[in-house]
Amino acid sequence: MGGVAALVIYKNRPALAEERGDKLELTLPDGARARVRPKDVLFLHPGPARLPLEVPEGEEEAAWELLQGQAVSLKELAELVYGAYTPEAAYGAYLLAQRGERFVLEGDRVRARTPEELAALLRAKRAREEREQAFQEAVGRLKEGRWLPEDRPLLAEAEALAWGERRESRLMRALALPETPEAAHAFLLRLGLWRWENPHPRRLGLPLTPPDLPLPPLPEEAREDLTHLPAFAVDDEGSQDPDDAVYAERVPEGFRLLVHVADVAALVPPGSPQDLEALRRGANLYLPEGTVPMLPQAATERLGLGLREVSPALTFELWVSEEGELLRERLYPSWVRVQRLTYREALGEPALGPLAALAQAFHRKRLAQGALDLALPEVKVRLEEGRVRLTPLPPYESRLWVREAMLLAGYAAAHLALREGLPFPFATQEAPSRRVEGEGLAAMWEQRKLLKRAQLKAVPAPHKGLGLPLYAQVTSPLRRYLDLVAHQQLRAWLRGEKPLSQEELLQRVGAAEAVADLVREAERKSKLHWTLIHLLQEGYEGPGVLVERRGGQGVFLLPELGLSAQVALAQPLPLNAEVRLRFLEADLANLEARFALV
């Protein structure tokens, strides 16, 4: 290049190049300078050249007709198209090759496309232009809130974003809308394309169909026959998966309590396909639309207590003092004959009298040990034939009877595991940062906010919220994976077999808890979603209880809806004051509702 500025291409832009030893010194179009190796540039013309460059008019089509299918140098192409080899002509030839229509750059040479290639290229270009025009026309319609059937494939992109199945959307960008699932959901609602769709479980990546896996037959083993004793599976009306049943009687030292639990581990051993699938799901997914089980449907049909005349169970036989002290426990497989009752029906069952007395004793003991007794209103949300049904759950005393029996079984199982050195998923909870003084829903609301998250650990620790020094969840193996793991460990111990190691248990605890968190989030959001739809369908005016003050706003609990709402206060109100609230509007995409004082 000998001190003369040559023309090169560097990073797709023209530059002037001068030799400086074994490198080139470049002057870029904006005046900046750079030192590069010769192999980093494409040589166009030896110079002298100047920037900027003005490309002359040329005969591109005539040159292409002459060269069809042949390859030439950039110098030859410049001479054919522009009639001369100047820096401007060389740059023009480069631009023609870069454009890639009639000519295409291949290394440092240029190939003229064949007529067939060019025709195909032009057809593809026209198709792209037509698609772009159709896209822009669709965007124009959608901005006006209109859509046509031919827009449906385009709208599928927004739907995929709303379902959480993609993270970006050209359509949402073109509409100047955020590329979020919530914004896509709101957009689809405005169009009328979506109405009541619940995207939350799918958005969280949860399976929405039952597992399709066979179950082995029940193993041949000794089971104690308890079919001569009463046993009651007590649950909410409409419950489809009864996995525990209870019976208590008075004995000289206090009470004898039998807690029968569906013997799921008899059919689902560790590492089996059914076990691994249950681990992947973490827990049953309870949605207002229906339940998605973690185990094959046959597990409930064959093991659910009271669904057949006689059921296999794992029985926790516990002896408890009059003061609620656990004296001793025994664990064994059994056959039981179970009667199913609702909580309301249980109140009228005389045979449950000893259970009521035992439950009260154990409840008092837990309270004396620091247990928190939070009883905030609960509402069951069900979708039935296109209508949303909200059913407040009455605080029947029978709920306490069953709950205390289940807690006793978990307390006894944790003691057994600790005593026997059995790796076990212990449920633990640290004490809240403070105890709330006061009464009513406001105090419970405040106390719940101060609760520490309960955790499952392989090392035992107190569960302060329950007032228990040890605890494990063992009474819902049809519904929760880690209850099933606890049963697998207990069964291995009973049979003298090798249980899961501490490391294997920890792996299962971590994986199951991660999925169970998603299940709980999907359940919470789905319940709120369908509650908002109920409000949109039916409207609402009813009681609200003030549980918190935030400046000029009040947080109200609506017991009939199972909702909390923040409402502007026209005047100060005392905590626990009951007012009437009216539903105003709902933002379904963002799961928000607005209420006002009547």
TrEMBL record:
Pfam families: HTH_RNase_II, RNase_II_C_S1, RNB. InterPro entries: HTH_RNase_II (IPR056404), NA-bd_OB-fold (IPR012340), RNase_II/R (IPR001900), RNase_II_C_S1 (IPR040596), RNR_Ribonuclease (IPR050180), WH-like_DNA-bd_sf (IPR036388). It comes from the Bacteria. Residues 223-496 form the RNB domain. This is RNB domain-containing ribonuclease. The lineage of its organism: Bacteria, Thermotogati, Deinococcota, Deinococci, Thermales.
